[in-house]
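Action item from last week, closing it out:
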Amino acid sequence: MIYRIAPALVALCLMLTLCTPAVAVDLSSNVDLDISGYYRVRYDNIFGTGWYFAEDSDWWSYMDQRLKLDPSLSVGDNISLHMQLDCLRNVLLGQNLVEREPIIDVMRDPDDSSVIDSFDLGEYELAQGGVMSSDTSYTTRSGDEVPSVLLSRAWGQVTTPLGQLRIGRQGSHYGLGIFSNDGNGLDSDNGDTYDRFMWLLKVGPALPALGYDRLAESDFKSGTNDVHQFFALFNWLDRPFTGGLYLAHRNQDSTNARIFIYDAWAKVMFSRMTIEAEGVLFNGSMTQIPHSVVSELEEQGLPVGEGGGKIELSAYIAALEAHWDDDFWGAGIYSGFSSPRDSDPLREWDADAAANLAEAKAIYDADPDDPDNKIDFISSVVANQAAFGKKVYTYPFDADYNVDMILWEEIFGQVQNGMYAKAGGYLQLADLRFSLFGLYSWINESGKGRDGSDASHELGFELNYETSYTLYDHFTASLLFGGFWPGQYFYDSYEDVENLFTIQSNFVFHF
């Protein structure tokens, strides 16, 4: 257990080390420590999922938790140190430890054992614990074990006459958060975190900034796999209009990647009406499979797809929110759009297919003299042609931009290759709040149905209801109901389709 609490002790000692001498030696140095955050427990039940997830059970139920602490240490008016501590981050309640054993799962053609239908590197999950268990563990809903305490972010800020400098590992958020989302919301699970240098300059209502992000690093001696991002932003922060433009360029030598990101955001507020919109465009290219590998495969007479390993990126996402918020009630309309994928699945690059191919090649390279490894590698090349796709035409919303409770949250996980229209409102009676929203969704490129014809674009209708009560301004309990009625797309693509329902409850201590 010591290794689990060590990060918390280190962070605490660091804060005490920084605070104590300053306070003890000179009280006039104006050292101030502030902590904010929340502790959250969620209870989630979803009914009727078996037809989509191909599970024996039509019901899943779980409880998870998260303690998020954001300590901030200020030294005078111009220097501050910020941290984020994640404790029990999305850890399930109860004894949920599993033991994982790696396996290679190869599915061969029943008519020809030399042909692989699918190839995947997986794990056996062996449940530990039973009716007499007396301890808890640290695994999430997906079975991943996480540290009980994790120092997720740490960065410093210094304000000078020429602007503010921020250095370190920090959250990234822009606009509505459909692309860059820091995950600081009470119902967030992830959050974008960058190792960043950023310079901001405030001139009246204008806020320009320049920055550099180091997103990935491999061999520091060569740097060929390092991912660098350079960005500039310009915001205008003045009511009734706020908004701006965020421009970024990413590059990586090993993949010859040159990616451009254009993010425009605008927000207009007048009286109690708020209209906010964000649109993001992705453009560029990358080579996910090295040219040498492609040449080797071509020499062996193997197919290498239309793109031959070079990927073109051209995708966009957008969202709109318009809502009226009064002291006692509110109402709004919301919509979002993610560009359609290519109509030919082999032209749209598939990350899972690329991962399968990479695993097969790694196994083959480890023992190229094994004939089975060579057969498996060749078969994997044939079965995962989408790894050579030449396009990325669709891009997902950030997972922490929450749209609904079932369709985009649980079935698809994120808004991608689709669009939605949402409307509803809430009633606020002192500390008691009632809200009701309806949402209709479509898929942009639907592909083929089970009968070989084009599947419908209609995803279906969802209704979400929530009652919440806030006590003493710092504790909120809520009860939520959701229902999803699948559209024709699911009936075209799946058998025995059923309506899905969810019952959830949240308990949040926020400060």
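Closing note: The helical segments are 2-25, 50-53, 291-299, 351-366, 371-383, 407-411, 488-493.
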